[in-house]
Amino acid sequence: MFGEPTLRIYLAGEVAIERGDRLLRESDLPGPQGRLALVYLVADRQRAVAQAELAEVLWPQTLPPSWPVALSAVISKLRNKLGLLDLDRDRVIANAFHCYQFRPPADTWIDLEAAADAVHQAEGAILAERPQDAYGPSLIATTIARRPFLTGEDAPWVASKRQWLSDMLVRALDCRVEALVANGELALALDQARAAVDLEPYRESGYRRLMRVLVLRGDRAEAVRVYQDCRRRLKEELGVTPSAETESLLRGLTA
Fold it and tell me: What is the per-residue pLDDT across 195-213, written as a single tens digit (0 to 9) for each?
């Protein structure tokens, strides 16, 4: 006997919920407030969110005069939409003690959580000196973390989640470079190493990784240029010089 299809929730890129052959797209959700409520509750599903907190998320400028009623209406519409996926409308968004909590089936797949898990797997493989095992997880993480988050919104919690995604992407790119190098895909490794530097232009480890890939490709002159760019940025923006590890790598290139 087969169980229900896995519930899959996408918060990065277009917000969407999929179960088997049924799909709720962002345009199917109950307006901007429904979209925000869903993303906020799913992203923070490990805790119960106070109704007043959620109302501030939906109406950050001015709360409606009867905001508890308005919030209840948004949640009711959202529950009805989730019910189209054969989810228990009262269970999937539970309500108790003036709080809401998203409680999906146990096997639910959520893209942001999948990205974090994939980064941990990839980093574990790199630490264990099995870079080939980081290939798949790092690809999953970079694919998800590259997607935009809640386009059109600019609340502090949205900015915080975007920064989290950016951090995940940098970590995933680091692992991706190591996996690609181990797999002999140096051209793609170079692209990913440059992307990591672009995301965090003051992080020396990114420059060192880029330099090493360039050396493997036989381009020592470009590796030296990358070092010089690193040194210039650190001096002009931070008032510091490259670390001993970075300087040692340069000496190895020019010896």
Answer: 999 999 999 999 999 999 9
